[in-house]
Design goal:
CATH topology of the largest domain in chain A: MetI-like fold
Largest sheet of chain B: 6 strands, mixed
Oligomer: heterodimer
CATH topology of the largest domain in chain B: Rossmann fold
Structural class of chain B: alpha+beta
Strand order of the largest sheet of chain B: 6-7-8-3-9-10
CATH superfamily of the largest domain in chain B: P-loop containing nucleotide triphosphate hydrolases
Order of helices and strands of chain A: HHHHHHHHHHHHH
Bound molecules: adenosine-5'-triphosphate, magnesium ion
Shape of chain A: globular
CATH class of the largest domain in chain A: Mainly Alpha
CATH superfamily of the largest domain in chain A: MetI-like
Strand content of chain B: 25-35%
Radius of gyration of chain A: 25 Å
Radius of gyration of chain B: 24 Å
CATH architecture of the largest domain in chain B: 3-Layer(aba) Sandwich
Number of strands of chain A: 0
Helix content of chain B: 10-25%
Chain lengths: 288, 350
Amino acid sequence: MKERIRNSLNDKNSLFSKIVSTTPAFPYMAWAIVFIAVPLGLIVYFALTDTAGNFTIANIAAAGEHMSVLFRSIKLAAIATVLCVLIAYPMAYIISRKKGVTGSTLLMLCMLPMWMNFLLRTYAWMTILENNGLINRLIMLLGFEPIRMINTQGAVILGMVYNYLPFMILPLYTTMSKIGNDVIEAAQDLGANSIKVITKVVLPLSLPGVSSGVTMVFVPAVSTFIISKMLGGGTNQLIGDIIDLQFLGNTYNPNLGSAISLVLMVIVLLCMSIVGDTEDETMGGRIK
Amino acid sequence: MKENILISLKNVIVEFEDGHRVLKGIDLDIHDEEFVTFLGPSGCGKTTTLRIIGGFAEPTEGDIFFDGVKINGVPPYKRNINTVFQRYALFPHLNVFDNVAFGLNVKKMDKKIIARKVKEMLALVNLSGFENRNINQLSGGQQQRVAIARALINEPKVLLLDEPLGALDLKLRKDMQTELMRIQKSLKITFIYVTHDQEEALTMSDRVVVMRDGQILQIGTPQDIYNEPVNAFVADFIGESNIIDGVMYEDYEVEFAGQAFKCVDKGFALNERVDVVIRPEDIIVGDYETSPISGVVESVVFKGVHYEITVDAHGYKWLIHSTQSQEVGALIGMNVKPSDIHIMKKMEVR
Ligand SMILES: Nc1ncnc2c1ncn2[C@@H]1O[C@H](COP(=O)(O)OP(=O)(O)OP(=O)(O)O)[C@@H](O)[C@H]1O
Ligand SMILES: [Mg+2]
């Protein structure tokens, strides 16, 4: 009897505490429903219906026809992401070791391009890379043959790296600045030279930053359409361009557009879960 | 402690970018297998001196020698010196075993030997069985012992310890003090120890270096420092003291608190103004009519072994440690033996 009463009390407590703990979150719940759940539901709905609103999987099947474009998108985004890691990592490390004003100034300089309009930045690269653009004119001035740079995959990757680099630097900088100088000095004290300090201390401690940076660069890069449109020409279409066409182009077909988006989302989620797993193994593995 | 000098600082000056001179010419010889303690108030440059020896900071001027070889500019990882940092600085991503094994892993030592050494080392610091614990699952005292084990496993010639017991409670601190002294004697390693706790310094060290404002005021055995402090600052820092203005009449005679006293000091100028230092336990309480100094008891605090009595006399608050309690408000007399009166030159005001 006593047991029962205590149990029911406990139940009440837990229910009560649940209500209390969720109440402050209510505005965010509402926000999440209106801006995340509903649009997602709509995409799923469109993807699985035809123009008349009947259920069909034809759209998903049709999305399969764009597999080669999808793979190209993943390939280019992956290359751009790797390049971003390689460029941003040493940069973030150096900035994070600078004290006070110098560090924050350097960080701001890295972030500065982000304050310029995205389209403008990409246009700027167009004029630089064009066949008679800045670089080629310089090359011709020196008496060499011009190089075709615009409308290549390289140009697209360049655009991705340039535009998304800050998204890699920021999370890396954040995790790295949390690594205390004393820990690094302790490693040196115990016989680690600069390289060993990086591999044995800085790298393992900064992996969470790497994984969030990878997410923040890879996801927008894989679904971009502006960069490929402006720097890749017609020949290097990405999956984002295909989706764009379904909504704004002459092949107006929101159902197919939604289906491709859905497929893209699933694949991105798969990619990210792989990244997340490796992070768990290296970081969280010991905490259990 | 051996005769040969292991570490030697020659006129070491450290100036930071802001032009602030943190060390103003440190000269110091440290012997092999010696236990040396840097003692001084916060900000006096103890950590900076340690960082110079460890290689984490470079002297602006002056030289540092290790075993007779100049080591200015030699990076920390090439110095046969290990450090227990002021805030431990354990590696958060490694467990206890890997933290302790870090130095040996860096040296690519055989895994089996590493495992054996880590086991021995953890036993030495009483942490056997903690191998797989995460760092954040340890108490402050346990983390501290991991930090010591992690440094000692590399068998350094010198161990630098920067206030390693600062975060521990009194009981644990006493235990660890004994433990560290035992380790130092058994492994025959030179310990350079930093603290601002004078009792800790006096208990543990072969020699104490009293610092203030980037300068060394006195170097000596704990007995020297306690019994023969060079000035009133050292005297006050090394133990509670009464510091009274006095005038040296002539050799062996000093005037303070309106009275002339016999003393054992000489060599001062005629009528030189001096600091008279008297330990609280050296004041003899007596009848106010027959004692040279008399005053009113202001407060009495029981401290366990003794009563701490404050007496107002001749414009000073006199501190007395006595096994006998007194009435607050009572008029009492005070006397001092000549040998307990320490005369010191006035400190130059800086
Ligand atoms: N990187 C630095 N730049 C400028 N000034 C510094 C720097 N590091 C230390 N100082 C200054 O040098 C002085 C001595 O510092 P230090 O850390 O050696 O003191 P400490 O004796 O170890 O003090 P504590 O007992 O508080 O640890 C302080 O005044 C401090 O402000
Ligand atoms: Mg310090």
